[in-house]
Amino acid sequence: MCGFIGIAAQPGTDVSAEIYDGLISLQHRGQDAAGILSLDGAFHLRKQNGMVRDIFSPEDMARLKGNIAIGHVRYPTVGAGGEEDSQPFYINFPFGVGMAHNGNLTNFLDLKGRLFPQENICLQTSCDLEAILYAFARAFQGTEDVAPLRDRFRAAVEGVFQRSLGAYSVVGILGEGALFAFRDPTGIKPLVIGRRDTPSGPEWAAASESVALDLLGFERVKDLANGESFLVTPGQDPEFVSMREEPHRPCVFELVYFARPDSMLDGLSVYKTRRRFGETLAKQWIETDGPQADVIIPIPDSSRDAALSMANFMGLPYREGFIKNRYVGRTFIMPDQEARQTSIRRKLNPIPLEFEGKDVLLVDDSIVRGNTSRKIIQVARKAGARKVYFATTSPPLRAPCPYGIDMATRQELVARDRSVEQIRREIDADHLIYLDIERMIDAAKVGNPDIEDFCAGCFTGTYPTTEAKAHLAAIEEERLAAQA
Ligand code: AMP
């Protein structure tokens, strides 16, 4: 999972500082590496592993000139995650194009190992964006130089669609002075377009989440549809072209965990959706005769909105019983179980007052490996809870994600082949409930009935694109080999 933003402003302005601010607002989508690419006739690039705030010096920002720029934050999925894999990427020959993306190509290994070598293209990195860049460049180059830019761009996106399988939302710059974006034919990853009016004319932006647009004063114009492209040259009207008719399957896990609650994704308010998940879970708890709790306590941060509406619906007090230290890094990426357990404890400290002598209902957005829930339940008991019940605002995660959400391999998922009762025992809860999949999907659809369905592959093991399973098997093999 990654995040990006691109801006095309009126000539004579520099937009990199705004890209920087946009990236800070998208930092939750990836803390591994970040980069900015700008264009003022020539490309200027700065990228590195690390957090946005640590990468760009005042000198870098002064160098990143131009009225068109894109920025990226990376969350590693495929590949070693080295410096050379950080984005954006650009090439100057046979013409200038730069790109950043969010997603995963499920046929990347085939493209890299077989298809591109047949055309004498040797990919240098283990980042699948490079394959998209070359597929785009190949098709762009194949068109007549004299053809209008729009036609060449469309042919280039078509070239990407023909070769790339999986999930990818892309933002980019054409050296001729244009900003572009496109979304894969299934539309799994989000991509929103915004516009702001200035005295010298309209300016345009494309981003992973609308929060980045809000903060920079852009109005949300639309979410790109699946298989749709966007191209704008400052001073001209933008072009939106719908290039595919496949069903749209946005990722439901964005709504559960990944996106910021103040974002709108495909016309859905993340905040309202999480509130609806909470209410639906409350109904399910009551219908299934869940035990009576004294208090509802969220596991910060992403379950708060759902826990609050669950508490309202059930008429129970809502209390912040855990305080999170936001300066502890992600527990998810720690190398082994023991390190993860220790750092979960350091990250979340209880307020015993909220636990002593009470039957507490803890609410989290998901259970992945089960480390967080197991540890937190222990902490709650130690803090004096009498009974510890656990509810999650999503169904059991039974299968990995081939599209870029790093959720561990199948073996590591606590729910992979266990019943809910077995998981309850694993995490040592007195009662456990998962939000039912149909109820979750229905609750998400309420916000935008135009969405017929979501990608819920991590819950069902059924994926909306071909090659996904083969790709997962290859990743699993790579990870097991690395651990051996
Ligand atoms: P675990 O200890 O593996 O069960 O972790 C579950 C916790 O990780 C939940 O509290 C989620 O909020 C969080 N989480 C879920 N998915 C991800 C992800 N892809 N990356 C990082 N954290 C996640």
Could you name the key traits of this structure?
484 residues, seven-stranded antiparallel β-sheet, 16 helices, 23% strand
What does this structure look like?
- Helix content is 33%, strand content 23%.
- It is α+β, with helices and mostly antiparallel strands.
- It folds into two domains: 3-248, Glutamine Phosphoribosylpyrophosphate, subunit 1, domain 1, CATH 3.60.20.10; 267-483, Rossmann fold (3-Layer(aba) Sandwich), CATH 3.40.50.2020.
- The strands form five sheets. Strands 3-2-4-1-10-9-11 form a seven-stranded antiparallel sheet. A six-stranded antiparallel sheet has the order 5-6-7-8-12-13, with helices on one face.
- The relative contact order is 0.11.
- The model has no long low-confidence stretch (mean pLDDT 93).
- Residues 257, 299, 302, 330, 332, 364-373, 405-407 line the site of adenosine monophosphate (AMP).
Number of strands: 21
Identify low-pLDDT runs. none
What small molecules are bound in this structure? adenosine monophosphate
CATH architecture of the largest domain: 4-Layer Sandwich
- CATH fold category name of the largest domain: Glutamine Phosphoribosylpyrophosphate, subunit 1, domain 1
Structural class: alpha+beta
Q: Give the helix level as a range of percent.
A: 25-40%
Separation of the first and last Cα atoms: 26 Å
Q: How many discrete domains?
A: 2
Largest sheet: 7 strands, antiparallel
CATH class of the largest domain: Alpha Beta
- Strand residue content: 15-25%
Mean pLDDT equals: 93
- Count up the helices: 16
Radius of gyration: 23 Å
Within the largest sheet, what's the order of strands? 3-2-4-1-10-9-11
Shape: globular
